């Protein structure tokens, strides 16, 4: 079970085997904390602690806890804990428990453990875990930033730059016995750190990307075991370009930010056994070079590696660096220095290719069988100077060649030049690709499939959800969604991984992030993204369409920037973390004031929109063939409906924060907008132009008068069933509210039809045409290739939310965020014979598995320890319900269950 940091959270896991009630005369077994990693270098004074109790008899609840925190594991006892002893605290809370000890000093490591009391007995103390407090203040950092703020003669920094990696090294003496050693590093744009010839950690493409004019993240590593005591040591750092040295230099500088040349700041803090301390920091005594094997690197164009330029042992003691340059002091980045609280990227999975075909000359096409994100590891043997090129693409042309047009000007090519006839295994360090197919050229001899391994790269976060049904189309859509969502986690949620864009567009994840939460342990990623959005806000209140704002897009609309509110609401509801509301509420308020001041007319219509219902499907495949999908259709109906929706959300936020004085203004404006919306857009039983999205939004937002709801909803149904012949016609905005609204109005059967369609337009149509991820366009197989990524997530809309919250019925309680109390309320829709889902919530695994057996439904549920489930029974006039074989009283509509596993029959 992974221990992790969620923004200001430390999250630890307590595992119990089988707790028994003391009255049974059976000893209560110990609770056990199992840690895979420990958080290093956080900069939060009062982190929050969490634990899970993963087993016990039915209806087990925590009644109290005690937390001990100390500077040494040997001090973790109630009478010795020198940092904090909470005492026995009567509380059911096992998540978001605030550390309330003495403020920790910089570069301090502490240890902690917990015991709990439940209604079934008392646990033993958990195993010991730890966290460390990093460098909170600017003045805590020693030394200076180093780098080379220039290009070298062999480098080109024109529009398509060829800037190689920078290599820096330093040797230092350790003359005393080491107690503890910690490295703090800011390596921009990307770094790989080594100590005494060994890579430190398993992160790749670190650190997490930010707008470096606003903030810069540092990473922390405990290197005690890697340091050689009473000996010479060497530290080495490779710097890649990343997002810092922009991938397109001097190209549209009015639009694309550039931050400068790669640079580095390192503090190695050594605590000695005699109580003294030493800091090894970057200075002009370090040596550096740009004349190494990585001759070029960036996300768009790939990595160029010349093995003839290698310098073996460069990061070890004794290397002759006399030909290297003295490191130069450079201007530090403008942003604040902050501990990185979200995970770095990592190679998360290896993928074996499924075919390798010759296509003429020395060229071969490798098929990975899956559209994936990452790179290839290649094993090769040849002669000095042999040059192998790996070019990446998502699909093939009819003649078997790579289809490159949809990648725009991204060169997406890795190049490796051999230095001798020895077999080598190589993979790039400072690039990644979105691809299924790879053209291999220049490979000496005949390549074999086993010479190549796909490395899938995304943020080091756990998959926490499982979903499976009796319908193979739904299952494949879910798998496609998993691959697309995971691959586009890059320290921020990017839109696509393959072309010359790869930007964190806000609109793509507005509702999708909600569904993703059931699939991935992504709370820290999305909390970091809220910070990116907040820091991108202009002084006047404007919010961007892209955050971090690598592209200066502030187009002023409600839907893209409004994702800011929707992500905050989702995180609060799913995790119970009130800080996501508290930290962002002032910025949200400024933005909504800004939009009203600039764009709300006297009739309370928000007149400004940018994108409309982005990428609605064309009326037919024929009509969309060869057509450009990059068409904006602004809609005041959409912008006004969203403003109403956000006023409702702001009222909820103000209530959560006890900002009662703000609520009357929100409610007043909400009612005014509602009135204006009805006058402007309501016709006789429909809204606007009677498009699906025009009617879906007021239905989803509760804007339709009660007496008109069925009439408006009937228009949605008629559009699907008659006009669209059983298909959707929504773009990015409408699809975010489609499946839930249909189900809420009693037509889950129609939602299921849309979800399982295999004809255009549908998710199944993508699959029928070879998709292994989700397309950017409903007609992505025929649209003009300038905008038809084959790995986007935005058109998932609310589909994955619907999978978990409707088909499986797992939903956080509205009045109990974080799943302390949650609902189990599936839609047992006709047309499905089985739905099996689970979700590792903050308290433990929630499971919902229902299956039809003849004319009976068997529904098995799992409720975690220390939670309560409100189970909703489906309405039926003819069947009786059983719970674990016992008949329930007639007329029962819901039942409350404590922890345990249960089986319903009806």
Distance between the termini: 36 Å
Global Rg: 29 Å
Number of helices: 14
Largest sheet: 10 strands, mixed
General shape: globular
CATH class of the largest domain: Mainly Alpha
Count of structural domains? 5
The name of the CATH topology of the largest domain is Glycosyltransferase
| Portion of residues within helices | 10-25%
Beta-strand residue percentage: 25-35%
Structural class: alpha+beta
Organism: Echinicola strongylocentroti
Domain Bacterial alpha-L-rhamnosidase N-terminal: 176-348
InterPro entries: 6-hairpin_glycosidase_sf, 6hp_glycosidase-like_sf, Alpha_rhamnosid, Bac_rhamnosid6H, Bac_rhamnosid_C, Bac_rhamnosid_N, Ig-like_fold, Rhamnosid_concanavalin
Domain Alpha-L-rhamnosidase concanavalin-like: 360-457
Task: Describe the model.
Residues 1-20 form the signal peptide. Residues 360-457 form the Alpha-L-rhamnosidase concanavalin-like domain. Residues 176-348 form the Bacterial alpha-L-rhamnosidase N-terminal domain. It holds the Pfam family Ig_Rha78A_N. With 906 residues, the protein is of the alpha+beta class. It contains 14 helices and 46 strands. β16 (190-195) and β17 (198-199) form a beta hairpin. α4 (563-575) packs antiparallel against α5 (579-599) and α11 packs parallel to α14. The longest helix has 21 residues, at 579-599. The radius of gyration is 29 Å and the shape is globular. 51% of the residues are buried. Residues 1-36 have low confidence and may be disordered.
